[in-house]
Design goal:
The protein is of the alpha+beta class. It has eleven helices and 15 strands. The protein is elongated.
Length: about 400
């Protein structure tokens, strides 16, 4: 996901759908899909010849000054001409409603819509930014749930989840109150389905807690995709509002996913749900167990307070765990082996427990460090990468990695 702010701080961002994207060719347009998209994005049918074509006008003031003639089907003799004129008119229109329809035609997409009930008045940049950030966190939580069903992901699966968001496009926010994301069916439908199921499960779990005082429903909700990451995203969405809704609309030309309803009502959350969501998030964090792993990793940094004894090591994970880096403490012998492997450009294999505390970024009880032989080409690549970061090699320097 990328947007107009992409790359500033390295965060996962979203692509703005106003950026260049394919324009659908009129011969590829299904009239029924076009009509469904027009209706979905606020266009209204105002007459036409029944069974032949309809006249559609856009939402907003002065809408009747512009209209599209859309055939009911390709059986209508002039359907190609009408569809060509309709697509051309949409490309020339400077309204979000037109761009949204064009995008849905060019890239069949499921849509996720966020709506926040905020006080009337001029919107601030902060409101827009808060909505974009909450939407980003919601999508990332859904993407993480496609990788694993767990109450707390931490740093695990982040790379794969972020890759799933690469093709997601979003529109502009409307006064910090409305935002739509377009998830291409070909690549991101699993994300749309999982997020849809997770949102309903979260709503049911919150209702159960508020009715009974019990948190048990959140345990079962994990299987549907609910996690600490999702509860935090929902808290960010509703904070400072009178309520917020998230709705899913399936791509009209792709059919409804198996096990999902055709008409999907938005899921609503309110500020009154925040205490329950916060308690659920803390519960997920507290109860997620550590994981026994054997990781293969490149040593990228070493530090200890003197020439002898144990020391701290940072490892870039190559395999064995769904995280990119971990930190650990090694006894004197394992630390020496790790240092030698670092100088030779060899990865190491090490065992330990990946701790949930700290987001699964720490390997506790690490032991059994052994160098791993690699092919010459791979070794040269590792050496080059590590030599570019020689400043990380701080043998016998002051300070401690664990305190950073």
């Amino acid at each position: 996901m990328r947007d107009h702010d992409a790359g500033r701080d390295g965060r996962t961002t979203m692509s703005h759908f106003g950026d260049p994207h394919p324009t659908p060719h009129p011969t590829d347009v299904d009239p029924a899909v076009l009509a469904a998209l027009l209706r979905r994005h606020g266009w209204q049918r105002r007459g036409g010849a029944p069974g032949r074509y309809g006249r559609w006008t856009p939402p907003g003031p002065g809408a009747t000054a512009t209209s599209l003639l859309v055939p009911e089907s390709r059986a209508y003799p002039d359907s190609d001409d009408l569809l060509t004129e309709a697509v051309t008119a949409l490309t020339r229109a400077a309204t979000p409603a037109a761009r949204e329809v064009l995008l849905g035609l060019a890239v069949p997409s499921d849509e996720i819509r966020w709506t926040r009930d905020t006080p009337e008045g001029p919107a601030s940049f902060n409101a827009d930014d808060a909505l974009r950030a909450a939407a980003r966190r919601t999508l990332l939580a859904g993407a993480l749930a496609t990788r694993a069903r767990t109450g707390y992901h931490g740093a695990r699966h982040r790379r794969a989840a972020a890759a799933l968001l690469d093709d997601v496009l979003v529109g502009t926010t409307e006064g910090g109150r409305h935002l739509t994301a377009f998830l291409p069916v070909a690549t991101a439908r699993p994300l749309a389905v999982r997020l849809h199921q997770a949102l309903y499960a979260a709503r049911e779990a919150v209702d159960y807690q508020r009715a009974t005082g019990g948190m048990d429903a959140f345990d079962g909700a994990v299987e549907a995709g609910v996690s600490r990451e999702l509860t935090e995203a929902l808290i960010a969405l509703v904070r400072g509002t009178e309520g917020a809704r998230i709705g899913v609309a399936w791509a009209p030309g792709a059919g409804v996913p198996e096990g999902c309803a055709t008409a999907v009502e938005p899921v609503e959350f309110s500020a009154g749900d925040i205490p329950v969501l916060r308690e659920a998030g803390a519960r997920y964090l507290r109860e997620e167990p550590s994981v026994a792993v054997t990781v293969t990793a490149a040593v990228v940094r070493l530090r200890r307070s003197g020439p002898r004894g144990e020391g701290s090591v940072r490892l870039r994970v190559l395999g064995g765990a769904e995280v990119t880096q971990v930190r650990t403490r090694l006894d004197e012998e394992d630390y020496r082996i790790a240092g030698q492997a670092h100088l030779l450009g060899l990865p190491v294999r090490v065992r330990g427990r990946l701790e949930s505390r700290g987001g699964f970024r720490r390997l506790a009880g690490a032991y059994g460090v052994v160098p791993v032989e690699v092919e010459e080409v791979e070794r040269d690549r590792l050496l080059k990468a590590l030599q570019e970061n020689l400043d990380f090699f701080e043998e016998a320097c002051g300070g401690d990695l664990d305190g950073e």
